[in-house]
Amino acid sequence: MLKKIVLLSFLCLPLGMIAQEVKIAYVNSAEIFNVMPETAAAESELLKLNQSLRADIQGMEAELNKKYTEFMQQSDTLVQSIKVRRMQEIEDLKNRIETYYQQAEQQVAQKKNEVQAPIVQKIQDAIKSVGDEQGYTFVMEKGAFLYVSPKAVDATNQVKAKLGLK
Q1: Protein fold of 19-162
Q2: Where along the chain do its domains lie?
Q3: pLDDT score recorded for residue 7
Q4: pLDDT on residue 23
Q5: Which of 52, 63, 73, 127 is the most exposed place for a label (fewest CB within 10 A)?
Q6: What is the pLDDT of residues 71-114, one digit of tens each?
Q7: Cα distance between residue 149 and residue 125, in whole Å
Q8: Whole-number Å distance between alpha carbons of 140 and 162
């Protein structure tokens, strides 16, 4: 008999959870991110880094093109050992450019994470704060839903207000 009572209480437990009101809100975090004043500064910083790295790569490519052009113009008159050495220099420079390009991509990705992380954290903190204040059970990303009920609340403007944005 005691087993039946315990089993019955466990079966009724989920019904108690269902009876609680579930408040769901959603936000468009990309919209919030794009209007944050810090975003413009972060984008500017990334642009400067990109331009600097692009200039370095263009300089290396110009050097490669120059060496290749010189080699092609002189190849008929060069001794075989010098030809082989210059071909190796060109190949080494080409490999160096490829390596630098890969490192530059990694550097840009790392910098992007570095400058965007505080902005994203600030947005997440504001979302959590609005969720706590409004009593939302869940706050989801707007694009993650296939269907949004009219009962769901768009909390994007509330989060913007919390961040002092229009």
Answers
A1: Protein Binding, DinI Protein; Chain A (3.30.910)
A2: 19-162
A3: 42
A4: 85
A5: 73
A6: 899 888 889 999 999 999 999 999 999 999 999 999 999 999 99
A7: 25
A8: 17
